[in-house]
């Protein structure tokens, strides 16, 4: 209860700060519009205004403050503007419409999920191989760990273009990027998980003369579940970023990344922010869903 | 075709060699532990080279490693300038500002149970979001040059660092805190002598996660606009010109920068948190 | 044993009268201490024994101002426990050594000295002295994780002895150690007590340990936590380990056991 209060307070504070930040950020633009509309603006000289900071302008033009929260193309849109845009583009638009965020979200989400699925399956398989084969462990594992330290997302534009040049386009290139971004965290986490049973637990199965397969199904796999879920959450977040970035270089017309890019071309800040929040909500839902599955599975297994 | 057949044979040989080494009597020595991944890496490179040549794979699909190496060696000035622009100016300055600000924020938050309780879930939530998406906004605000890249990096590293530091500063046992209490230690005494050293493993965890995030942020932000310089700019324009050898050369630079940056932070960590069970040899 | 009448006021170090402590928990209030009356005199070695939940640790923590009583009065050296804490009146030894892994043994012992503002030279001098006292001379440069559990616990005792607290509060300090190490440390603790003349409050689960060490044994019982018996030990101050086979020792141990049983029968 206290926690909920605390979180709400923090969120409310952040939103309050956001509204405050809108004032100096948008003041310049608001004053230009106000002057055009014939209002008294201080100082009247536009060049002098450009020299001044947003805060001091706001102090001298108090009347213009409400307008900073209602601009058409603000530098920083106010929270309610973003909320309204989100509402308009999700609930009020038909989901087949090119202007519906649900449509764009689905384009990105489908690539994310396909890539995440492929990456996870391959990652788990490689982890199983690594745990059971000393050669694979010693040759592949160091590279998997190193791969965590390099920005492999830089490969994204190239993958899109290369796959395009061999005739593959649409969902697959983005899914490939999503797949390899989720692949490495899953490998590293799963190897850790499959190795988590301690010597005593392994020795116990040894005294039963259990086979490698039995040890895997009855001990290693169940023991790895908490680790698997932890890395799945990292993996799906990375997959989503991959799908979004995958939409940037080809000038794709649909998807959340395309909305971001189009918004930045045409200065549609409200559109950028709503795409950004759309992506954030999507990420939160995906991670939350995994968290829910994790809770149910671990509870069934008596681990949580 | 002979080259491809040769590649297959070589792959088999590399695997056989590694198997011998891994299951041999010296498999736990440091040299072998280092040699096996290196042999594996070298095998991959040679097989890659042979297959690309043997099948005449066009440059626009996959350049041979030798071609990438030649491009790398031939474009050192460009690569260096891109590295300075993206890594030193964008990623590094953003990393320092972001991690520093997050640390100070964590110290301030730590004094209030209420703030910590509220900020930790929010921070954890934000840390899982696709923050790279703020890049177009920040590029709009701070211009095309490195300042906007640094800003993206600041936003990206801030929350992971904050969450880790806050969690770390709580990482003391009730007993350790009681001990400070019996000494009637002041807040800052117990901060510097107990909570800060105890938080170090967590702080370094945050710092290590942030190294990769910083590079990702700086490179991806350049996809949204940059001066005609920088690793992200070079990658996106070279892709457009189908100069994939240049793209790969930049990726090599990014890989080296990322690994060395991470390695450097890990090295400092090893010296600072030598006492932690994970660091003891 | 409320000996204030006979004893001169000066020698009473800890004085508890009608002490009460109730914790508010989610399952309702828990009566951790009820009407506890006890005088501890200067130079006493007082053991607190009883089953878990009897409030022995809570009482020790009250003395150290780590818990605040909800009723009754408690003074330490004639002050409130909190004032005494700020005057640094006691050293506290916990169940685990709790040494900071990032500090060497010597630096760990210096920790309270740094906080209390001793000079660099004084710090070194004191560290050397207490390390000798607990038989750890030469180990100052080691890190805690390089020493055995028994040595770590000795270092934590040295840390509590390093500053001039005249009260030593020990909360099951040897509970996690094996029997042989424990015997050895008990012997050393007695020698240390004889040499330093400190007042010691000692929480334990073990009847032989309590009887072997103490001048007085306080038997406690749970729900609510209270004192059921206080036994004066007739054993001499000089106690070799084999005193534990003597008839007197067995007699005292028997009385403690009876006291513990009586506490249970009350329920």
Automatic annotation (TrEMBL), chain A:
Q: How does it sit in the membrane?
A: Multi-pass membrane protein
One short Pfam family name for this protein?
BPD_transp_1
- Cellular component per GO? plasma membrane
ABC transmembrane type-1 domain: which residues? 101-294
A biological process from GO: transmembrane transport
Q: What residue range is the signal peptide?
A: none
Q: Does this UniProt record's set of keywords contain Transmembrane helix?
A: yes
Q: Provide the transmembrane region boundaries.
A: 106-131, 143-165, 171-191, 227-252, 272-293
Q: Which UniProt keywords apply?
A: Cell membrane, Membrane, Transmembrane, Transmembrane helix, Transport
Q: Which InterPro entries match?
A: MetI-like, MetI-like_sf
State the similarity comment: Belongs to the binding-protein-dependent transport system permease family.
Please give the name of this protein.
Answer: ABC transporter permease
> Taxonomy-wise, where does this protein's organism fall, top ranks first?
Bacteria, Pseudomonadati, Pseudomonadota, Alphaproteobacteria, Rhodobacterales
TrEMBL record, chain B:
- Topology with respect to the bilayer: Multi-pass membrane protein
CDD domains for this protein? TM_PBP2
Chief place of localization:
membrane
- A single Pfam family it belongs to is BPD_transp_1
* Source domain of life: Bacteria
Question: What SUPFAM superfamilies does the record point to?
Answer: MetI-like
Q: TM spans, by residue? A: 32-52, 59-80, 92-110, 122-144, 150-169, 202-226, 246-268
Q: Which Gene3D superfamilies match?
A: MetI-like
Q: What would be one Gene Ontology cellular-component term for the protein? A: plasma membrane
Record GO biological process: transmembrane transport
Instruction: Name where it's found.
Output: Cell membrane
What family is this protein classified in?
Belongs to the binding-protein-dependent transport system permease family.
What is the protein named? ABC transporter permease
* Taxonomy of the source species: Bacteria, Pseudomonadati, Pseudomonadota, Alphaproteobacteria, Rhodobacterales
Automatic annotation (TrEMBL), chain C:
Transmembrane residue ranges: none
Keywords noted in UniProt:
ATP-binding, Nucleotide-binding, Transport
Residue stretches making up the ABC transporter domain: 16-247
Return any one Pfam family short name.
ABC_tran
The record's PROSITE patterns line, in alphabetical order, gives: ABC_TRANSPORTER_1, ABC_TRANSPORTER_2
Query: Please, which domain of life does this record's source organism belong to?
Result: Bacteria
- Homology family: Belongs to the ABC transporter superfamily.
User: PANTHER family from the xrefs?
Assistant: ALIPHATIC SULFONATES IMPORT ATP-BINDING PROTEIN SSUB, TAURINE IMPORT ATP-BINDING PROTEIN-RELATED
Protein name (record) = ABC transporter ATP-binding protein
- Native organism is Ruegeria sp. PrR005
């Amino acid at each position: 209860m206290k926690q909920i209060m605390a979180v709400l307070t923090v969120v409310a504070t952040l939103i309050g700060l956001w509204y405050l930040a809108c004032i100096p950020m948008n003041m310049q633009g608001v004053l230009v519009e106000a002057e055009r509309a014939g209002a008294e603006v201080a100082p009247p000289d536009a060049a002098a205004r450009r020299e001044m900071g947003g805060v001091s302008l706001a102090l001298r033009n108090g009347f213009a403050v409400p307008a900073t929260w209602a601009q058409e193309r603000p530098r920083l849109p106010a929270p309610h503007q973003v909320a309204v845009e989100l509402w308009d583009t999700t609930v009020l638009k038909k989901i087949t419409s090119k202007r519906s965020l649900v449509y764009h979200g689905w384009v990105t989400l489908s690539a994310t999920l396909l890539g995440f699925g492929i990456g996870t399956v391959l990652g788990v398989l490689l982890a199983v191989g690594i745990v059971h084969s000393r050669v694979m462990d010693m040759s592949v594992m160091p590279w998997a760990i190193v791969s965590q330290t390099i920005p492999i997302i830089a490969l994204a534009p190239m993958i899109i273009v290369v796959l395009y040049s061999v005739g593959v386009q649409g969902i697959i290139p983005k899914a490939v990027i999503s797949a390899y971004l989720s692949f490495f965290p899953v490998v590293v986490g799963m190897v850790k998980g499959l190795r988590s049973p301690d010597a005593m637990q392994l020795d116990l199965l040894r005294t039963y003369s259990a086979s490698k397969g039995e040890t895997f199904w009855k001990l290693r796999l169940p023991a790895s579940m908490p680790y698997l879920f932890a890395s799945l959450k990292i993996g799906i977040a990375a997959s989503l970023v991959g799908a979004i970035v995958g939409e940037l270089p080809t000038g794709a017309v649909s998807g959340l990344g395309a909305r971001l890019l189009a918004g930045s071309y045409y200065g549609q800040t409200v559109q950028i922010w709503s795409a950004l929040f759309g992506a954030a909500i999507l990420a939160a839902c995906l991670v939350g869903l995994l968290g829910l599955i994790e809770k149910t599975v671990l509870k069934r297994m008596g681990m949580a | 075709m002979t080259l491809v057949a040769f590649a297959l044979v070589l792959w088999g040989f590399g695997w056989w060699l590694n198997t011998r080494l891994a299951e041999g009597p010296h498999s736990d020595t440091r040299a072998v532990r280092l040699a096996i991944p290196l042999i594996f890496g070298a095998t991959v490179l040679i097989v890659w080279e042979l297959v690309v040549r043997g099948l005449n794979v066009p440059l626009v699909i996959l350049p041979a490693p030798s071609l990438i190496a030649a491009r790398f060696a031939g474009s050192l000035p460009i690569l260096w300038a891109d590295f300075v622009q993206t890594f030193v100016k964008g990623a590094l300055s953003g990393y320092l500002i972001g991690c520093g600000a997050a640390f100070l924020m964590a110290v301030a938050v730590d004094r209030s149970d209420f703030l910590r309780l509220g900020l930790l879930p929010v921070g954890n939530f934000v840390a899982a979001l696709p923050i790279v998406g703020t890049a177009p906004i920040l590029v709009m605000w701070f211009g095309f040059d490195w300042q906007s890249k640094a800003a993206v990096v600041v936003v990206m590293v801030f929350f992971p660092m904050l969450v880790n530091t806050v969690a770390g500063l709580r990482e003391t046992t009730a007993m350790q805190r009681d001990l400070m209490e019996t000494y009637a230690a002041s807040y800052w005494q117990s901060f510097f002598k107990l909570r800060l050293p105890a938080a170090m493993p967590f702080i370094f965890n945050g710092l290590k996660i942030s190294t990769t995030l910083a590079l990702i942020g700086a490179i991806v932000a350049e996809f949204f606009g940059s001066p005609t310089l920088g690793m992200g700019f070079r990658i996106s324009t070279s892709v457009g010109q189908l100069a994939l050898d240049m793209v790969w050369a930049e990726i090599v630079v990014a890989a080296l920068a990322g690994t060395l940056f991470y390695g450097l932070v890990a090295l400092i960590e090893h010296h600072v948190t030598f006492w932690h069970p994970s660091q003891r040899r | 044993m409320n000996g204030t009448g006979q004893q001169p006021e000066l020698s009473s170090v800890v004085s508890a009268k009608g002490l009460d402590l109730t914790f508010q928990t989610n399952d309702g209030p828990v009566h951790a201490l009820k009407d506890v009356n006890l005088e501890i005199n200067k130079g006493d070695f007082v053991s607190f024994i009883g089953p878990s939940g009897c409030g022995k640790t809570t009482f020790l923590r009250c003395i150290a101002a780590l818990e605040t009583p909800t009723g009754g009065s408690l003074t330490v050296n004639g002050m409130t426990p909190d004032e005494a804490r700020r005057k640094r009146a006691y050293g506290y030894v916990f169940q685990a050594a709790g040494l900071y892994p990032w500090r060497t043994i010597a630096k760990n012992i210096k920790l309270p000295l740094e906080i209390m503002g001793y000079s660099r030279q004084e710090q070194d001098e004191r560290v050397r002295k207490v390390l000798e006292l607990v038989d750890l001379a030469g180990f100052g440069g080691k890190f805690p994780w390089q020493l055995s559990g028994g040595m770590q616990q000795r270092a934590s005792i040295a840390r509590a002895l390093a500053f001039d607290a005249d009260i030593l509060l020990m909360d099951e300090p040897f509970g996690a150690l094996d029997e042989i190490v424990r015997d050895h440390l008990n012997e050393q603790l007695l020698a240390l007590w004889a040499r330093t003349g400190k007042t010691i409050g000692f929480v334990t689960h073990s009847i032989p340990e309590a009887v072997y060490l103490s001048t007085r044994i306080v038997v406690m019982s749970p729900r609510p936590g209270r004192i059921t018996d206080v036994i004066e030990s007739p054993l001499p101050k000089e106690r070799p380990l084999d005193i534990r086979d003597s008839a007197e020792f067995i007699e005292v141990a028997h009385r403690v056991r009876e006291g513990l049983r009586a506490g249970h029968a009350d329920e």
